[in-house]
Amino acid sequence: MKTSKIKNTEAVSKTGIRFLRSLRPRVSPQGTTVQVPKSSKLSMIIKLFDILVYLFEACSRHLQNRKVSAYRAASDNLKTAMEGEFPKLSIDFSKVSILSGTLAAPSATMNQNNRSNKLNISWAECTQCNSNQNDELIGIMYCPEREGFWCEQNLGITRADEYCTIDVPNVFEGRDVHVWLAYRSADHKFYSNSVYMGKVFISNTKSYGKL
């Protein structure tokens, strides 16, 4: 078993990252009852778009050699990931693709150590032509409650390992996080598509004492 080299790293918050401001409904005194829902719906859609822009901008900040338009990526993802009907609109994070590329994407399973902030990831040997044993695993997490984003491309894990344990940042304890995985080539020139692994609740280990 191989454990990630990165432990208790800080997650990036929205502070200091450029993103859109949500529109506030503007209704004149003579505004009709039809105008109010339209304005509210637009405001809600922009808030969802704002979240996606933040995800792509934060990811690009970590992967500095990636030249991706956060607004274009957010727009494309909003079309496929927005679900529900007003006023219950939301993002289906399983349909959000944070990274895209030509390498073979991860095909893995994930489970959480009981009462811990550790995630176990396992996968079989990849035989696709667009994969290499030294491709490096990237871990990506987003916590809606904290509006926190974590991306680590230096986990020290490669395709050849086929199993690893990733430590979730302490700041996410006691909250739900969405998890994606991706690969980067050893020369840092190529990436795979990101794969959504699921939503997990990160237990607060302090509340259990010593395990």
Q: What does it look like?
A:
By secondary structure, the protein is of the alpha+beta class. It has helices at 35-62, 70-81; strands spanning 2-3, 82-83, 90-91, 108-112, 118-123, 136-143, 148-152, 163-167, 175-184, 195-202. Helices cover 19% and strands 25% of the residues. The strands form 3 sheets. It has a 4-stranded mixed beta sheet with strand order 1-8-5-4, with no helix packed on it. Strands 7-6-9-10 form a 4-stranded antiparallel beta sheet, with helices on one face. The longest helix has 28 residues, at 35-62. 28% of the residues are buried.
In brief:
The protein has 211 residues and is of the alpha+beta class. The chain is built from two helices and ten strands.
Strand order of the largest sheet: 1-8-5-4
What sort of overall outline do the alpha carbons produce when their principal axes are compared? globular
Strand portion: 25-35%
Helix/strand-derived category reads alpha+beta
Total beta strands: 10
Mean pLDDT: 81
CATH superfamily, called what? Answer: Immunoglobulins
Radius of gyration: 19 Å
- Name the CATH class: Mainly Beta
CATH topology value: Immunoglobulin-like
Unreliable sequence segments: 15-34, 207-211
Largest beta-sheet details = 4 strands, mixed
Q: Which percent range fits the helix content?
A: 10-25%
| Domain unit count | 1
Distance from N terminus to C terminus (CA atoms, Å) equals 20 Å
What string, H for helix and E for strand, traces the elements in order? EHHEEEEEEEEE
